[in-house]
Specification:
Distance between the termini: 60 Å
Structural class: alpha/beta
Number of strands: 17
Largest sheet: 6 strands, mixed
Helix content: 25-40%
Order of helices and strands: HHEEHEHEHHEEEHEEHEEEHEEEHEHHE
CATH superfamily of the largest domain: NIF3 (NGG1p interacting factor 3)-like
Number of helices: 12
Strand content: 25-35%
CATH architecture of the largest domain: 3-Layer(aba) Sandwich
CATH topology of the largest domain: Udp-n-acetylmuramoylalanyl-d-glutamate--2,6- Diaminopimelate Ligase, Chain: A, domain 1
Number of domains: 3
Shape: globular
Length: 376
């Protein structure tokens, strides 16, 4: 393989890095994230970032020329049955992008939850400290726990067989198990051939409950090893899926600088985000101590989460009329920067991180990506 071919960057390479920066497993279940359109094997040297894929952004990408668009909001969201160039919907933009050889990737709520993503950027603009998600979520840990019940004299043989098949490994340790003594019962009916006791009567056997973890991908081998080593004709076993440790989540909460007021915080965020459509809920002189941050359309959602229930202010993109009334009744305040305006500040940060992770890749933030609203 030539040096040139080894250094070639592909759409798949860029998508893989984006998957690491904003793991799809962190996205909300209703979302559609990741590589939405494109050929992973195609070369990629230029990537354009935007919040929304609009005709102006697509024109910019084609003129670039860019081989990939990272659109924060997924242009393919609900299932679609057709890609028609003249539909007037977002599928027309996707059709045009695909026809022009431009791949489309969307991180959306995966970037919201990921460290360094949209909510962390907005929390930084608020100068929050002691920042954490206001609701932790967990991803599939890829591990299961297998539980079986074995006569004491055979427990080591079963455990060693399961370990040889891939179970019982935790970090640098092997043959890890947990064992509890108990009593098992069974009644062998006609046609059974119990290896312990006799059929036709209730048997009680001293047993040891043994628990071992195993990678989900090794379950068939571990179960086969258990069955071969177990002394019973019909061994009983249970499989429990295990979640990963909570390390990410929805939104952010944190402490504001001392003597922060609603008016002062709103003015600071308007200046830092460039928002021209920001509005506040509450009195400008209200003193604030703790904030909940959630880009986009959070509404009163943060108040339903345990780590945000005691916040003084919600900082988000947009809030509906009745949500604002509910906040006032609760004695809370809010700043709505504008949906697009709350999310856009994350793009320069994402561009820098992506460019650093893929040397030689040119990453730019779209100049044609604009919010849909302006002051009358």
């Amino acid at each position: 393989m030539s040096r040139k071919s080894r250094n070639r960057i592909t759409i798949g390479d860029v998508a893989a890095v984006l998957d690491m920066l904003a793991p799809p497993a962190m996205a909300q279940s209703w979302d559609n994230v990741g590589l939405l359109a494109g050929d992973r094997s195609v070369s990629c040297s230029r990537v354009l970032l935007c919040i929304d894929l609009t005709p102006a952004v697509l024109d910019e990408a084609m003129a670039g020329p860019y081989q990939m668009i990272v659109a924060y909001h997924p242009p393919i969201f609900r299932p679609i049955k057709r890609l028609l160039a003249d539909s007037g919907q977002t599928d027309a933009l996707v059709h045009r992008a695909v026809a022009s050889g431009i791949a489309i990737y969307s991180p959306h709520t995966a970037l919201d939850a990921a460290p360094g993503g949209t909510n962390d950027v907005l929390a930084g603009l608020c100068d929050l400290t002691e920042v954490e998600p206001f609701e932790y979520t967990t991803e599939d840990g890829g591990q299961c726990k297998i539980v079986t019940f074995v006569p004491a004299e055979k427990v080591d043989a079963v455990a060693f067989a399961m370990a040889a098949a891939g179970a019982g490994r935790i970090g640098g340790y092997e043959l890890c198990s947990y064992r509890v003594r108990g009593e098992g019962t069974f009644y062998g009916t006609e046609g059974t051939q119990p290896r312990v006791g006799r059929r036709g009567r209730l048997e009680k056997v001293p047993e040891i409950r043994i628990e071992m973890v195993a990678p989900r991908g090794r379950l068939p081998e571990v179960i086969n090893a258990l069955l071969r080593a177990h002394p019973y004709e019909e061994p009983a076993y249970d499989i429990y899926p295990l979640a990963g440790a909570p390390s990410f989540g929805i939104g952010r909460t944190g402490l504001l600088p001392p003597k922060t007021t609603l008016a002062g915080l709103a003015a600071k965020l308007k200046a830092r985000t460039g928002s021209r459509v920001a509005v506040v809920v509450g009195h400008g002189k209200a003193r604030l101590t703790r904030a909940a941050v959630c880009v986009g359309a959070a509404g009163s959602l943060p108040l339903e989460k345990p780590r945000a229930a005691d916040c003084d202010v919600i900082i988000t993109g947009e809030i509906r009329h009745h949500e604002a009334l509910a906040l006032l009744r609760l004695g809370k305040t809010a700043i709505a920067l504008g949906h697009w305006e709350s999310e856009r500040p994350a793009l320069p940060s994402l561009a820098t991180r992506l460019g650093q992770a893929v040397p030689g890749l040119s990453v730019r933030v779209s100049r044609k990506d604009t919010g849909p609203f302006a002051l009358a």
